[in-house]
Design brief:
There is one protein chain. With about 200 residues, the protein is mainly α. The protein has one domain: Growth Hormone, Chain: A. The protein contains 10 helices and no strands. The longest helix is centred in the middle third of the chain and has 32 residues. The radius of gyration is 20 Å and the shape is elongated.
Length: about 200
């Protein structure tokens, strides 16, 4: 949840700055480029969501995190070399976030499933708080880099964000839980069953 919040906020909340600073897009027309970006975010979970049940949680979470991280680094390189313009940059981001939005949704899904029922809400709140903290820091960092006007510095920042997503994919591959097509009680035994003594036989 921390990694997806960092990636999402770092890119999404600074994209208008990219368009104005590097592609000379007039501020009054920036919103035109945001719509396809947002549309890709919407379509990702809708079109890819069912695969988390058919192919499996662990496999799909690993793939979506890894692929979005690698694509971010590749797009960052194309940006660095000047191979992109405002339209192709938007298309690239839309593709990345089509995948990354499904990854982000799966992060919340995972947290809601792997903890016992009694502490599930608390677990979600704690992880969401850490994710929000990372998401709050990212735009400030990327905004400062964009303000410097350095494509090279921004390229390395994108590589860092991509690497963070790949690390999350590795963690999921190692520690992920196969939760597809299972009841929540089968994934995490309720604490009431774990802590309560066995009832005497009658």
């Amino acid at each position: 949840m921390v990694t997806q919040a960092f990636l999402y906020n770092a890119i999404f909340f600074t994209y208008t700055l990219i368009l104005v600073q590097f592609y000379s897009v007039p501020p009054e027309t920036v919103s035109v480029y945001i719509f396809p970006f947002a549309f890709g975010n919407l379509l990702g979970p809708i079109l890819l969501g069912h695969l988390f049940d058919s192919i499996g949680r662990k496999t799909m979470i690993t793939l979506t995190y890894a692929v979005s991280g690698v694509l971010l680094a590749v797009t960052g390189y194309l940006f660095h070399t000047g191979a992109l313009n405002a339209v192709t940059q938007t298309i690239a981001w839309s593709i990345i976030f089509f995948i990354a939005s499904a990854a982000a949704s799966s992060a919340y899904l995972t947290v809601s499933e792997i903890f016992p029922l009694e502490i599930r809400g608390l677990a979600i709140a704690i992880f969401y708080a850490f994710g929000t903290l990372a998401g709050a820091i990212a735009p400030a960092i990327f905004g400062a880099i964009i303000g410097s006007g350095s494509r090279t510095a921004l390229f390395w920042a994108y590589c860092f964000a991509g690497a963070v997503m790949v690390v999350a994919a590795i963690v999921e591959a190692m520690l992920g839980v196969k939760a597809e097509r299972k009841s929540l009680e089968d994934i995490a035994t309720p604490l009431s069953q774990v802590l309560s003594p066995t009832a005497p036989a009658t």
